[in-house]
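Contributing new complexes? Match this layout with zinc ion.
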Amino acid sequence: MRYVVFLIVLLMVIMPVAAQDGTGYEAAMLPDYAADLDAFPHAPRYSMTINLDLGADQATFSGFQSVTYTNESSDTLNEIVFRLYPNYESYGGVLTVNRVQIAGSPITPTYDATNSVMHVALAEPLAPNASITIDLAYTTIVVNDRVRLYGQFSYSNGVLATPNFFPQLSVYETGAGWWEYAVQPQGDAVYSETSFFDVQVTTASDVIVITSGSRVADTLNADGSRTVRYLAPLMRDFSLMASSAFETISDTQDGIQIDVHYLPSGTRGADAVLAYAKVAVQTFNELFGPYPFAELDIVETYTNAGGIEYPGLIVVQDDAWNSLDTFLEVVVAHEVAHQWWYSLVGNDQTAYPWMDEALAQYATALYYGKAYGPTADDAVFDSYQGNWQRYLNDFSDLPIGGPVTDYPDNAYYYIVYQKGPLFFKTLADTYGEAALLSALNDYFMAYRYEVATPADMQASFEASLGADLDVLFTEWVG
Ligand SMILES: [Zn+2]
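Output block (do not edit by hand):
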């Protein structure tokens, strides 16, 4: 018995950790922006090795990750908090952390009631500017055809769609502490900081894996499996899609490789999606500022949202994909716009969903203006106005700036997505569209790779527009 115990202890101590050198991230950046890598030496660094099995009943991740976290706050930290999003009711998965170690010493984490917040207590407090590396082993299960909320975390018809499948660092805010919000009634669930991801995935050789960032190695193993390595620098999340059915078409726009991955019936949709995405990337690059990454992936999945945004990767619902109607174009424009508003300029999506959603909707109108001429954006704004007004026939008005939980039922859609973009339209009408676009460019350049709050946005716009925006922000945002 003693030997058995000894062996278990030994196995826990020598838990494998990804043996990767962490260099080569410039492969995932456009050459003009490779220097951005050096501006964030203290961003969290994830090194991950994953075995991914796509079975008949479930998909299973068996993962190891080593995470280096630097305390950039002015507080001394006694714990590090990870988020286990798959355990949310709205995800419907199961993420089990099997082992946690710091410098070879095992630690027993504690959890909140939802199992989506994991506390790792530190034996030695982490002083400001100090770094710590935490090793974790975990298993994540995605049950076949268990679709919850938007089906954002799902395994359906052989297509695996898995954002946030790994233990993900939460955000520490000086004064507020670790972010531990743990409900998702609707909207987006994640709040995270720009990080570096170095990820090796081993799976069956016929499985096509698509992730945030760029694939930098693809090796067939002697046992018939395949190991693929991805690098995703300066991204606030790492998302993974997989299926043996994906086909791909590609093109470039402004030097960015746009890969469109579709299911066998989605050929015509893929052509349309690629065309829309090229116009969207060109428009937002020109209006807001540069998309700095070498790639953008667009993936057809079985989500029942129209589309969902992740850093460097968006998914589009298969029904929209195959409908080829105007909704497909709206979804592609909106989700591509999120690369600027959410992915690059980050925000707490649960507390301030308007910051990225209303801007993505505003950007969608600008896309139409670019694609179809000056009156086309007016038509989009008219539709937002009409939808908001129709809502007001039956419900009372709300400011756009509340947390997701402030909006019962369809209020979220009508207030944040329909009224929200009209706030930016009002700023454009008041100060001139060119001035607002210049302000958005200033805001983008100041906060890309960072997290912005509503106060940051207001201060940035006020500096750019040379105006006091208190009255307008109070009236619209609340
Ligand atoms: Zn959105």
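Reviewers usually confirm one structural detail per submission. For this one: The CA atoms of residues 64 and 472 lie 49 Å apart.
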